[in-house]
Amino acid sequence: MALAPVTSARRPERRRPTALSRRSAATGAAFVLPAALLLVVFFGAPLSLSIVMSFFDWPLFGQRTPVGLDNYAAILDDDIAMQSIGFTLYYTVLVTVLTFVVSFFLALLVQKGGRAVGFFRTAIFIPSAIGFGLAGLLWGFLYNAQIGVFSGFLQALGLADGPVLFFQTQTSSLWAVIVMVVWKSLGLNTLVMLVGLQSIPVELYEAARVDGASWWQRTRLITLPLMRPTFALLLVLGVSGALLSFDQFFVLTAGGPDRSTITMVYAIYRAAFTQFHLGYAAAIGVVLMVVLLLVNIVQLRFLRTKD
Asked: If you ran DSSP here, which 8-state letter would residue 221 be given?
């Protein structure tokens, strides 16, 4: 019996849009239109204006003069701006990895039921309900050398001879902020990971136990591979949030000591609102946007390949 060639297979006929489908499409477009307008007004327009501003000498008052790429060239000669790029990337790596690892183990701990699990889940999530500004004020009080809890605790243990200055050096200031940010971010990350853990079929673990798999083998061969989409989502959100850090450093360190903890967003704030060089600030913002785009493209490409 002769087989029909593949090329002769008939293509499915394309259905003509009916009046009902056209009305459904118009209704859908009407629902999407407000969100699209808001996106254009609050994202597209400011982004376009920022890109235009980056090519001008744009003072707060006075004449605006086109300068071409001079604002971008000035970034290379600005020690604070260049230092802020390296510092932001270093901070992003540290805070993302720490938040990721601690959240994962907390999610594993509170995954199982029990009397106290509800209390611990609530306690872990509560810090996520407050903003970075308020959290910074709270931890600034805790870090206070004279009346702060941490300084007194270290002295009581004999680990410090006097008041501890947590913001005296760049390293101590950075880690003081990281501890606060990890504490603040644990709740949402743990909650998302907990949802991801509970979506894994229990039958897989039971089959692995029957086969004699240990806890580490079940985690490595079942939990980690099936949690990859959840990890990728948190990685994109965590990295983007860390690259846009500002509040925590503004409240806790004010960029100090000696301007060593200035992030890229903080550098934009300084250029725009303390030095009033709006065009130069816009140029740093465009650079930050490009960095964000590249990082997210790499992460999403990695996720698509793995899936």
From this structure: I
